[in-house]
User: What shape does this take?
Amino acid sequence: MNRVVFKRVVIVYGMACLSAFVSGQSGEKNLSEPRVVTPGACGAAPSDALVLFDGKDFAQWESTNGGEVKWKLEEHAMTVVDKTGSIQTRQSFGDCQLHIEWRIPEKVVGEGQNRGNSGIFFQKQYEIQILDSYDNLNKTYVDGRAGSIYTQSPPLVNACRKAGEWQTYDVVYMAPRFNADGKVEIPARITVFHNGVLIQNNFVIEGTTYSKEGYKPHHKAPLELQDHGNPVSFRNIWIREL
Assistant: This one.
């Protein structure tokens, strides 16, 4: 090919690529426009989220024992009442993004696993621990402290606030996939931010909490909040199905 012609081809090709880059084209890919979601302000739910608790009632919740929730409802928060049982959402979920705020009472009693204990269970199987773990003063096993994937993965760092202060978990959870014979094909994964700090980074969940047998096949299931006998409070809970 003549050098002058070749240069012209290169220049024309280069200009075409630059034009495609500037205009946002992506070669042969056929990509759709992202769906518009209006973000909430200061922890409020985005426009496509389901609000699970806004401080007004237990409309989205029921007791895991059956019947109505018997936890306290006051000051726009719900608080565990000992021996009334854990609660769960009326709706079932799989892959999701969850925002939840929780608080250990300022006058907290007990030590170790009896100090401000509760938990959040995804699909009623996999627990993120809630505990008074401020400044590592409450000594217990490291994979049982606040922010742990209970007995599987301790938090990367301790981002706890003092007892009596509200704290946040922001979670991205990807449910496991099972094949036709019930064996896990893709394990569950979870990413957790505690008070805005990354504490679980795409952790591969090893199996059902409290079970040494790994996974057991299941479908979508409710989100569960645990009654562990301590008056832990919750507020501003919303979820996005992914």
Summary: Residues 5-13, 15-23 have pLDDT under 50 and may be disordered. Residues 92 and 222 are 4 Å apart (CA to CA).
